[in-house]
Automatic annotation (TrEMBL):
Domain RecX first three-helical intervals: 10-49
Record key words, sorted: Cytoplasm
Biological-process GO terms, alphabetical: regulation of DNA repair
Subcellular location(s) per record: Cytoplasm
Tree of life domain: Bacteria
Role of this protein: Modulates RecA activity.
Residue ranges annotated for the RecX second three-helical domain, each copy included: 56-96
Gene from which the chain derives: recX
Protein family (similarity comment): Belongs to the RecX family.
Chief site of localization: cytoplasm
Protein's name according to its UniProt entry: Regulatory protein RecX
Organism in which the protein naturally occurs: Photobacterium galatheae
Gene3D superfamilies: Winged helix-like DNA-binding domain superfamily/Winged helix DNA-binding domain (1.10.10.10)
């Protein structure tokens, strides 16, 4: 069964998506293609949105970093989220370099909010905390700093 042609133009659909929230270019392309628009229509809509500066991967990357920080994520998790949305690697790197973030202090803040001042008394509790911090996207040095752990893993 062939998909029915969309009722609105690709440009209108793209503007509709962008009016709700910022999108990465590849993410918007994927959404438009899923709605049944042809490649030339999608390309034209993307170019149209870029001409008016409604679609900008650099701005999207900066927004993704702010959003990730607010969620208590580390650099690795934020990077992964942007890759999944289709943001170009160079754009991700540039946005992270420009972001004025102390990832060690971010990790410490997340650990403090989650665990408070409760001591790590058992290896099981230590492992649980390490897994939590890893799932948030912090590397081992940041986790060691945040949890005040001195020994190697």
């Amino acid at each position: 069964m062939r998909r029915q042609a969309p009722k609105i133009s690709a440009k209108e659909a793209a503007v509709g998506y962008l009016s709700r929230r910022d999108h990465a270019e590849r993410e918007l392309q994927r959404k438009l293609k899923q709605r049944g628009y042809s490649d030339p229509e999608v390309s034209e809509a993307i170019a149209y949105c870029q001409d008016y500066n409604w679609l900008d991967d650099a701005r999207y990357a900066a927004m993704a970093i702010r959003s990730g920080l607010a969620k208590g994520w580390g650099k690795l998790r934020i990077q992964q989220e942007m890759k999944m949305k289709g943001v170009h690697e160079l754009c991700i790197r540039q946005a992270l370099d420009e972001a004025d973030v102390d990832w060690y202090e971010q990790a410490k803040s997340v650990a403090q909010r989650k665990f408070g001042d409760a001591p790590m008394e058992t290896p099981k509790e230590k492992a649980r905390r390490l897994r939590f911090m890893q799932s948030r996207g912090f590397d081992f040095d940041q986790i060691r700093y945040a949890l005040s752990v001195d020994d190697e893993y």
